[in-house]
Design brief:
alpha/beta; 6-stranded parallel beta sheet; two-stranded antiparallel ribbon; 10 helices; 47% helix; 26% strand
């Protein structure tokens, strides 16, 4: 699949998992992930592993999947500004975002937020695009066991698949089954311990006022 040293990469981001990473980073590091720097790290590392020039290692597709509130609910919850600000960072990095509406339901006197269909959409889109685009690598940013079968299907297409995670919450958020199935796993909490400069490269430091206003959107 790799022609003349050119490496094609598809990135698929589970927005719920990505938000968990950023919330933990905000709490522990007063920082959030800089999308551009994360993408650069992916390209540079794969270029080294494949023995090609970084300019020949290109992200040809990047997709982000998340549930979100309808505009009135988002406005009432003071989320609109933060959502648009985050979307700006995705647009600037040519990330295509895919949204489905969240629902709130009352159960036992508590309000629960229901997100339906996102995992299925994520898997179908990742598999379909991988079939047509014939990526050399697919990067999955997720910790969800539901994507185990997606990984198995991608491997059947002979596409190298990498699970990229940053487990900061110590909640065992990454499925062991998914980790076993994927084979190639980049755990950024371990990688940044080995190389502290990597953390400085991929994180964006928040100012104190901004930190208090960002809420849990990211």
């Amino acid at each position: 699949m790799c022609m003349l040293g050119y490496i094609s990469i598809g990135i698929f981001i589970d927005g719920g998992y990505y938000a968990k990473m950023n919330r933990a980073l905000k709490a522990q590091e007063s920082s959030i992930i800089r999308v551009r720097s994360l993408f650069d790290y992916i390209c540079n590392r794969l270029a080294v592993e494949e023995g090609v020039d970084p300019s020949d290692c290109q992200i040809t597709e990047a997709h982000y999947f998340r549930g979100r509130f309808r505009v009135r609910e988002a406005y009432d919850k003071h989320l609109l500004y933060n959502e648009r600000k985050f979307e700006d960072s995705l647009i600037e990095n040519d990330v295509v975002f895919h949204y489905k509406h969240l629902k709130e339901v009352e159960r036992d006197g508590k309000t629960e937020v229901i997100e339906k269909g996102i995992d299925v959409w994520f898997a179908l889109e990742a598999y379909e695009l991988s079939t047509f685009r014939k990526f050399d690598y697919v990067i999955l940013i997720t910790g969800d066991a539901d994507h185990e079968m997606l990984v198995r299907k991608l491997k059947a297409l002979k596409i190298k698949t990498i699970l990229l995670t940053w487990d900061l919450a110590h909640l065992d958020a990454i499925s062991p089954l998914l980790r076993e199935e994927v084979g190639h796993h980049w755990e950024l909490s371990e990688l940044t311990k080995e190389d502290p400069s990597l953390k400085r490269h991929v994180l964006y430091s928040l100012r104190e006022p901004a930190l208090s206003s960002l809420g849990n959107v990211f």
